[in-house]
Amino acid sequence: MVLNKDTAKKTAELLLQINAIKLTPENPFTWASGWKSPIYCDNRIILSYPSIRNYVREKMGKQVESIYGKPDVIAGVATGAIGIGVLVAEFLGLPFVYVRPEIKSHGRQNQIEGQLEPNQSVVVIEDLISTGKSSLNAVDALQNHGAKVKGMLAIFTYGFDIATENFKKNNIELHTLSDYDHLAQLALETSYIKEEEHNTLMEWRKNPSLWKK
User: Fold this and answer.
1) Is the Cα torsion angle 104, 109, 115, 116 positive or negative in sign?
2) For residues 92 and 69, what is the distance between their CA atoms, to the nearest angstrom?
3) What is the pLDDT of residues 196-213, one digit of tens each?
4) Is 134 exposed, middle or buried (0-12, 13-18, 19+ CB in 10 A)?
5) Is there a domain that residue 213 lies in?
6) Which whole-number Å values give the CA distances from 17 to 11, 115, 125, 141, 208, in the listed order?
7) 118 secondary structure, DSSP code
């Protein structure tokens, strides 16, 4: 759920500006899942641009406060949201932890890295939401540790129906700075893509696992 349309539009503009999001309907990308996609998103690129990372840091920090108040801890989902999560925690003056995809096979065998006590309240920071599976895996790890997860805030979501269903099923509230609809509309309005390419983007989003160029 996007809370502020101006923020959604500005965030989409910045992501396109630094090529954190690339739209190539005529030359699709192949995701790790095997899906063919006319869009590719790598929000880690934000960290290389000080003014943009400060914008994201401030917007996410203020949204955490306005939605959830101040939690005890900010948690980032490894690896993409570690940097962003640290920025948000720093903005709010809060402790930070990050959650691995699975328990480490050596050393202390942690899945959660950092100091987190049972019953502490946590807001989870993500960079990108696709199906929501990896994000909710992190939530499970935090809850199994005894943390009280207040919700999740991400930079961008594709807005897949399956993600909406997954978050609803797990009773986790999700908010994002921007989303696929705002991005696609802005790209069309600024002539970044043509009308037919916009139609391709909308068609892909309906059923991405079966889409073919």
Assistant:
1) positive
2) 10
3) 999 999 999 988 988 875
4) middle
5) no
6) 10, 36, 23, 35, 25
7) T
**Helix runs in 21-117, H state only:** 50-68, 82-92
Query: pTM value?
Result: 0.93
Phi then psi dihedrals of residue 178, to 5 deg? -145, 175
Task: Provide the residue range defining the domain that includes 190.
Answer: 5-206
Asked whether residue 211 is domain-assigned, the answer is no
User: Are the C-beta atoms of 96 and 72 separated by less than 8 Å?
Assistant: no
Among candidates 100, 106, 99, 104, which has minimal Cα distance to 123?
99
Cα separations (Å) of 127 from 47, 154, 193? Answer: 11, 5, 24
Domain CATH code at residue 138: 3.40.50.2020
Lowest mean pLDDT among 16-25, 43-52, 119-128: 16-25
Name the token pair of 48.
């290389």
Question: Is 101 domain-assigned?
Answer: yes
| Helix pair 133-144, 161-169: axis angle to 10 deg | 10
Counting the structural domains of the chain, the total is: 1
Q: At what angle do helices 180-189 and 195-206 cross, to 10 degrees?
A: 170
The pLDDT value recorded for residue 7 is: 96
102 in a structural domain: yes
